User: What shape does this take?
Amino acid sequence: MHSCPDKLGGGCLCGAVRFETTKKPFKVCYCHCKSCRKASAAPAMVILLFEKDGVRFTKGAPKRYESSPGVFRGHCTVCGTPLSWEGTWHEKSIIEVYAGTLDNPETCVPDRHAFIEEKIPWFDVADDLPRYHGTSPER
Ligand SMILES: [Zn+2]
Ligand SMILES: [Zn+2]
Assistant: This one.
């Protein structure tokens, strides 16, 4: 289990959508996949992965877009901030939120890189974290 706090608060840029986490994420990783890059307009995202009941929206709700079959990416309809990813992963329902939307992102440190093979070549990573092709192993 990750060393993040049990409870984290976050939300979109304009404040129309707010969430809180109710347990620790089971993984915190950089994702370099093309889909995350497009969805965020950033070179990479830092993702917190939770079991389905690990995140609850406390104000507003993200608009959900089916980005591939069975996968729903959520964003704020007012300001456009990407907020969530919901789908099935290793046969369990999960929800992801992004470190960039946390009120205190410094408390949740990434522990790996996923989809390293899709990384933009000019985006250098100089840390010693493990790098994985595709989704990284479960723990
Ligand atoms: Zn917003
Ligand atoms: Zn991704």
